[in-house]
Specification:
Helix content of chain B: 25-40%
Strand order of the largest sheet of chain A: 1-8-7-4-3-2
Strand content of chain B: 15-25%
Structural class of chain A: alpha/beta
Largest sheet of chain B: 7 strands, mixed
Order of helices and strands of chain B: HEHEHEEEHHEEHEEEEEHH
Shape of chain A: globular
Number of helices of chain A: 3
Number of strands of chain A: 9
Oligomer: heterodimer
Largest interface: A-B, 27 and 30 residues
Radius of gyration of chain A: 15 Å
Amino acid sequence: MHDIAVELAPPAPLDPATAAACLTLLDFETPVWLDTAADSDEVRAWLRFHCGCPLAADAGAARFAVLAAPAAMPALACFQLGSEAYPDESATLIAQVASLETGEAVALSGPGIEERRDFRPAGVAEGFWKQRRELEALFPQGVDLVFASGASLAAVPRSTQVRF
Amino acid sequence: MVEDGYNFAYLDEQTKRMIRRAILKAVAIPGYQVPFGSREMPLPFGWGTGGIQVTASIIGPDDTLKVIDQGADDTVNAVSIRKFFARTAGVETTERTEAATIVQTRHRIPETPLGAGQILVYQVPIPEPLRWLEPRETETRKMHALQEYGPMHVRLYEDIAHFGHIATSYDYPVRVNGRYLMRPSPIPKFDNPKMDRSPALQLFGAGREKRIYAIPPHTEVRSLDFDDHPFEVQKWADVCAFCGSGDSFLDEIVTDDRGGRMFVCSDTDYCSRRREAGCTGPAMQAAGPGEA
């Protein structure tokens, strides 16, 4: 988990960390899908002006997704998972949650993590980690997750094993 | 001081975003080669353009950069790349391995162990480990998708059949996290064990071949071998002539045309620091105090 020093005034409902991830990663090459909570005229205008990114109408057509209310998100398998030959052609989800430290704990292990570590994002969808765990079998296909809250970011790539 | 007329770290911001996206996918799929839109750089392909583009995309004004070429900080490639980033990004540069936040390397891993938070950027000439076995990209891609890595074992077995041992001594193939076969770039196989579960992030950039791949920290990296021919690294009968080190990678240097030769550390930072600490090797002892 990383805290970032950003001075951004993104339109509601985006947090500074969510906005920073968007500004860092999005541009005209990356179709972006917004969930219902994030899909406002202000957010659309802000993303279009600052990132120049095309907005996808369909979650399955997007390379990035901004989820302002991940509790109501569609199933993980709706997003691009890449192919066996090109697993990199898959979606990255930027999920904005209420907190990274007060939710129910899941145990993470795998590349990038020395042994195991607990991760407690609040407000993920019911059955989200179960879906995520089922995707592990598809590796190297899968989706990569970036959790944002306030000015903090945490990432759970597809190579991470989730236990709960 | 950043020179006028350049964007920070030379590359434009869109290119850096594109490369950062490729790096993130590379880290998410350890050992998988992510295609990226490699740019023309102000030096030819083959001189580290892949590594430079990766470094340019991750470097920040607070970073400290070290660049080595075959272990040495003072060779042409290392000096010019270090100068390039000092001029275009205004970053601090260093020769001390532990003082660097980013180490860009050609063909060596420093002897001083890397720590958490450090990033090692490799310059890669040919990223595809199966390329000399199967020239078609469409086929090697399928082989990676299906984990069809038998031909590489056959190649190592042919070494054993010809020479009695695995004669591949550099660019020795590895499996990353039990999945992708990966080419570690032409580092000596002596360095392969340093990649395994390293606390540092390792990024690989191939400019001409337009591929980026990565090993995240704490990731298993296994050199291919056989039960009856386990992986082994090179050993030397000699020690470094300057610092007397018996456990670093040694270069053989021919000193005359009558068969004279000596062995010295390939890692110049490691060797000079040992000498500063008072270690001496055979050449120094022969020369006596006050000389060299």
